[in-house]
Description:
The protein is mainly α.
Amino acid sequence: MCKILFVNKVFVLALAFVLSGMSATLQAQNADAVLKQAESMLRAQDYSGAIALLEKNIKVFDTEGVRAVTAWGFLGLAYFSTGNYGKSEDYYKKSEDYLRPLIERNLQYVVAYKEILSRLTRVYIELSDYRNVICYSKMKIEIMERYKEYGENYETGLADAYATLSHFYLYTREYAQAEEAAMKALEINCMDGWAMCYFAYSSFFQRKMQEAEAMHTALLSPVGYNNDGVYDPYILDNYLKSLEENGAVPDSAKDDVEQMKIKAGVLKQAHSMSKAGNHSGAAALLETNIRLFETEGIKSAVMVWGCLGDYYKKSGQYDKASAYYEKYLDCFSSHTGQYFRIHFFPYMRSLSVMARFQFYELSNPEGARKYCQNRISCIEEYRKFFDERKIEMPHSISTGLEKYQRKAETDMMEYSK
């Protein structure tokens, strides 16, 4: 987790309106002057200076209410940034205790309160206090859902919050709760890659292999890998430890984890080679190790075929790229089934890539139009999926769907010239 090395404007601005309407007594003027100087120090990353200034003048804020909350927030940030997480927790807790009873009477405090809950969550992550991470994540979700009108990008933020909750349920080995939280994130934003990853973990750890495999295919990554293609050692090792504590570890579980680590190394090396411009070398490495992925089934094979298509395309070997892309799309389209909602957006992106590839690289406008028409048909099928089940489509998805349709229609015109 990265440390916050800047003053969070959301927190400051959330209180600015309140401060602007307060009477400016002499003590208030002194408090404002201290806050302004402290904010400048924090922006300059002079955390020790900000701590010394605020601690020296802390009594100025004794009767200043909201100004005190701002001072405590600044101290929490400064102590956090210097690695003193205990002191950071103390000051953030003071802010949280002060703001909690106010939000029911004055809704303008809601944004500041959510920010304090986020900051406390980050503190507990650094302290490896995962129970409190879960506690404060749930508190933030409750506030977000209750006061959805107070905050920008509500659906995206709520999906992120549920994904975070899922992540740390994995850390506490509460796999059913992790699965539930990840699915809630995906119901809000089915394109959330991290939520897909955590759903895959939680399904795998509960030995729900069919669900895990479906999600892996959508994520284009086998279980055990994050978005950078590297397995999360804490989650995997914690899983094995939990098995050890409850008796003998099944050989199949050990083998699964070891295979994840081996494949992660191959994928990471191939990615590094391609990133350095050696696309042919990356493709050759995957070809040499392709049985590692294909023998495990669809979840690994589909992902590696897509990678091979990309590497061959970048190296100018269009025939091979086309062959792997075709394998990828044929396999992907035949394994949607009950996981249609999960697979839809990755499949749409893949059809778009293939259409552009056919038109611009292979000079095949007929092939491009075929894949473009598949995109339009898929959009119609996706809308039908929701209508038939009388499921309300989230706003973020309906907006994305309209954007996809406009782009598909524009591309069809381009490919028809």
